[in-house]
Amino acid sequence: MAAFRTLDAKPLKKKLKDEFRFFRNWLDSPLTLGAISPSGPELARRIASLVPVRPDGRYLELGPGTGVVTQAIFDRGITQPQLTALEYTSEFCRMLRDRFPRMTTIQGDAYALRETLETAMPVQNGMFAGIVSGLPLFTQPVEKRKALILDALDLCESGAPYIQFSYAMVPPVKPEPGVLNLDKTGWIFANLPPARVWVYRKP
């Protein structure tokens, strides 16, 4: 007689609830989210694979949303106390605090990065070993995108990455000799819509 495996409905239920929350918040503020659903697991794993893991490192995630990439970062071996999450949407902040209670979650505007972080912690240049961003940068003027990335890299250690995904053919900010270096992954076609990851560093 064939054996049948009992499927656990909890992960599917959680995923559907997260997608509903994400879509509802997108309807309320489409320019804040930039997509109608959270990042897929393959994209989340690819992003997390680019984070340099160090037991003494501190990390920052911008625009974590429902926490799909956040969980992938923890699966890489980074602990909750090592990660600070900066999220604009109040509902997502409540969700993140519930799911990751030992992670520092800050509600605020990533485009006022230093000022927002200073509401919750001391801030200094070179404090982060890496920054991951799920912000929809293409909803902002290119000057504002560039200012954010440069501000974020000021807060990173020398050589540490600012990791950004997007659905576009072109990078959110072009590389600039002596100012901004850029690497990229191939397309992640398993994600809907297909996405790629851009990795910025200061020279």
Could you walk me through the main structural features you see in this protein, from its secondary elements to its overall organization?
The protein has 203 residues and is of the alpha/beta class. The chain has a single domain (39-201), classed as Vaccinia Virus protein VP39 (Rossmann fold). Helices cover 33% and strands 16% of the residues. The chain is built from 7 helices and 7 strands. It has helices spanning 10-28, 30-33, 41-49, 68-75, 90-99, 113-117, 142-154, and strands at residues 59-62, 83-87, 104-107, 130-133, 162-166, 181-184, 196-201. Strands 3-2-1-4-5-7-6 form a 7-stranded mixed beta sheet, sandwiched between helices. Helix 3 crosses helix 4. The mean pLDDT is 88. This is Phospholipid methyltransferase. One of its GO terms (biological process) is methylation. One of its GO terms (molecular function) is methyltransferase activity. Pfam families: RrnaAD (PF00398).
Comma- or semicolon-separated keywords:
7 helices; Rossmann fold; 33% helix; 203 residues; 7-stranded mixed sheet
- Quantity of strands, as a count: 7
Task: Please compute the radius of gyration using only Cα atoms.
Answer: 17 Å
- Could you state the oligomeric state of the chains shown? single chain
Helix content: 25-40%
Strand arrangement in the largest pleated sheet: 3-2-1-4-5-7-6
β-sheet strand percentage: 15-25%
Précis, in short:
The chain has 7 helices and 7 strands. By secondary structure, the chain is of the alpha/beta class. The longest helix has 19 residues, at 10-28.
